[in-house]
């Protein structure tokens, strides 16, 4: 891949996604001691950046492949993203979800006409169910984070941010499965002079931090974090990009995530999900490092159950 | 006053306020059956449109008056607006608040260096305390809604909205003390071809609805509504404007306010306070009336205690 790949990706998905706004807050700048630029992917269609990667992955299929549909296993934002992107493009979407997935997640998928295939709540069961759909329907499998087309689609959030703010010193994003940070790192590499990319990760699910240190993909034993989007581990497609282009990973505690989420809600008046608060929590934890810098932060999503908040 | 008055007002306050964004939502358009344009005054400085009127009122004082400070009685957004506007303009602000006002409201005022003067929780005690400050300090009294400069300052929100969306058929705003709707009605009269202005009001505090019917200012006995910004009644400066330029007032139930507030939070990912949900609740209650129209809604503020939500 090269710079042209990303430009083509951006042009390909543009008609199907929102160009989300970049918000600033004088009060938060004062609090953090730097100039913050928040890229609001919580305002993206279906409420998360995942719409970008899902759209690009489906648009990259052949006409024949599209007719057979797509399948993924996810109980999070990618399930909704694939459902909505597929609906917009007239493609059938099969979504494998554990039978104990929250009703609100199932409803989200059904809103966008995704067909839910229930399975047991283990990775093996999910993969088996997804494989069955591939074989029986000929559907193309889409991975939430470890697939090139998904990663390139994700790059477009940082590309838009850098178009608006070319002088960023650093962009911070949450790191879960690695798809957003890999895409962001490629965008910064090809479309900035010297903009670093830093990941924010919960200490409770610090597989990426440990992978970065050991040089091989580590996994989480517990992953007992409120940042439900960040419990997964890296993959063989995104980890090489992360190793090459990401500056570092900063870990934060659960109470730092919750306090930062509340701060964003109260001061910026925007809803973000816990995962989205992680990178800003990392900035607040390391103020000296970011002092007076131009700091981009991708608010990755806003899908949160407002009837069940941690504050 | 005339059109020039409003243009001068807009130019006067421009350096001190945010030009807030106008957001749209395909999903909410489909739900409501019309084209909605949400003017996000919840993103305004201190989190509400009140910043506009307060800033204009202080900027309209003479140099001598400014040196003696300003005083208001409010336990709501206007207290914070006056505090912040005064701070920005180097003017002393005295804020009369009932001693039982929530700590979060007092903290808000103190954040912006307003000096709190506590009094008993009656209108008489508030007015007496404010009068005392006027006499002792020579401070100028600013009224939250019933003062020309405040009303004209409020007009600028709808002026900005009409600049961006000149083809609006109607603008809806919440109606409490009458300052926002009067300002909006003037803006629509002078800066649109034929844009109507409609008020949304809680049935539990429907003084404006009754005033509109009777032709004289009515008050509320109970005002037991979650829309805490809308419990006050109209005044002699704004009621004539409302009578002349407002099309109608639509009343909504408490559960409609709460459901609409949750809908805005979940679908638009923006925090609005209960008062801000009232006009959209009025649209959802009267879909036929607004069908396929271009509907502007001013989301008046976003100051809400996120640890104490009605859903």
From TrEMBL, chains A, B:
Cofactor(s) named in the record: pyridoxal 5'-phosphate
Domain Tryptophan synthase beta chain-like PALP: 14-301
Pfam families, A to Z: PALP
Record-annotated membrane-spanning stretches: none
BP term (GO), one: D-serine biosynthetic process
GO-annotated molecular function: ATP binding; D-serine ammonia-lyase activity; L-serine ammonia-lyase activity; magnesium ion binding; pyridoxal phosphate binding; serine racemase activity; threonine racemase activity
Keywords: Lyase, Pyridoxal phosphate
Keyword DNA-binding among UniProt keywords: no
Protein family per UniProt: Belongs to the serine/threonine dehydratase family.
Official protein name in the record: Pyridoxal-phosphate dependent enzyme
Species assigned in the record: Winogradskyella ouciana
